[in-house]
Amino acid sequence: MPEREQQHFEPELSSKLDPKAYLEQHLEPKREGIATPEGLSAPLAENVEYTDDPFNKLEVTRDGLSLEIVYGESATYKVMRAVESYLSFAQTKESEFAEWRQLYSLKLRNEKGQQLDLDFSANTNGVEKGKPTTVVFRAGVNRPTNATKSTGALRHTVTEDRIFIPGNLLSPGDILLLLHELGHAAVLNKYQENDERKLVQVYRYLAYVRTLNHKRLNGDEESDPDINEKIFGTLLQEERDAWAFAIKKFKPFIGSAKITREAVLALVHEKALQSYSNTFRTMLGPTLGEKIRLKIVSYINTLLNA
Predict the structure, then answer these.
(1) Of 33, 148, 155, 164, which cross-links 86 as Cys (Cβ 3.0–4.6 Å)?
(2) 8 Å CB contact between 250 and 118
(3) Read out DSSP for 247-279?
(4) Rounded to an integer, what distance in angstroms lies between the CA atom of residue 131 and that of residue 156?
(5) Is residue 261 a contact partner of residue 254, using CB atoms and an 8 Å limit?
(6) What percentage of the chain has pLDDT greater than the value 90?
(7) 7-59: per-residue pLDDT in tens?
(8) How many of the other CB atoms lie within 10 Å of CB of 144?
(9) Which residues, 6 or more positions from 45, have their beta carbon under 8 angstroms from its beta carbon?
């Protein structure tokens, strides 16, 4: 029997530092973000055709790493509803609907027999019974997902999580991105079970950062001179917790198929967290032009209660 990587969707939450202090300690240094390192962006197979039957299986192998994906057709109501939600978030063209598929399961196995086994075919969060999770991915994209800003997304609700991956899941980087979004879900579900006030706070802060609508904040937060640092510290901590979750699940596959520890850390710190840090830094210390733009956006969205 192959050795199976133990799956525990129990996030290891970061320290209880004050969010402002956390931000000061963990904000990435000022620098440009990088593209996904080659060892993670290179697909395990080239020019793969995704079929459009109700139930499909794809199996590929490269350099001792085996991947099996079971996926569905693009036209199901559940897939279309999930993709519509993502399109409104990511501003993707509607003409690209047909490229998306629903993921039912994913298995990744290395030469040592260690296996990552994610099952979304029933009411599971990937590995165990419970809250259902819908995962959709963009099968029509046969390019390495190495763009500096390529990113997945999670839509978290009380009854269901929806995860969107903008690549075709054939690269180790896409799989790591999927694990990262599952990490977000695990963190938020942990809050939902044990600390609903924290969950509501994270929702509120995310909504504020996306819209700059001051009505998203409560009265005490609006008058707090350090509120931006506290917001960004809270969100950075949640982001780092999700990446810690992903790295822990992906660790057995480092060393296979030219995947190096340095590449994984570069993806996390010099691409993903760097993008967050650069955005936070811009909003915390904007140039005059940025200040004017942010004030206009904030005024309009607060007026419209966006």
Answers:
(1) 164
(2) no
(3) HHHHGGGTTSTT--HHHHHHIIIIIIHHHHHHH
(4) 11
(5) yes
(6) 24
(7) 333 445 555 668 888 888 888 888 887 888 888 888 898 888 888 888 999 99
(8) 20
(9) 60, 62, 170
Long-range (24+ apart) CB contacts under 8 A made by 50-56 are 50/101, 50/139, 50/140, 50/168, 55/104, 56/101
CA dist 269 and 263 (Å) reads: 10
What distance in Å separates the CA atoms of residue 215 and residue 89, rounded to the nearest whole number? 21
Dist. CA 270–CA 67, nearest whole Å: 27
212 closest CA partner among 199, 225, 231: 231
Q: Give the mean pLDDT of the chain.
A: 80
- Of 105-114, 148-157, 196-205, the range with the lowest mean pLDDT is 148-157
Report which of 16, 5, 154, 19 is spatially closest to residue 85, judged by C-alpha positions: 154
In Å, how far from its chain's centre is CA 202? 15
Q: Give the pLDDT of residue 262.
A: 93
Half-sphere exposure of 67 (CA within 13 A, CB side): 21
pLDDT band of 173, cuts 50, 70, 90: very high
Evaluate whether 150 touches 166 at the Cβ level (below 8 Å): yes
**Tokens, residue 62:** 């490269």
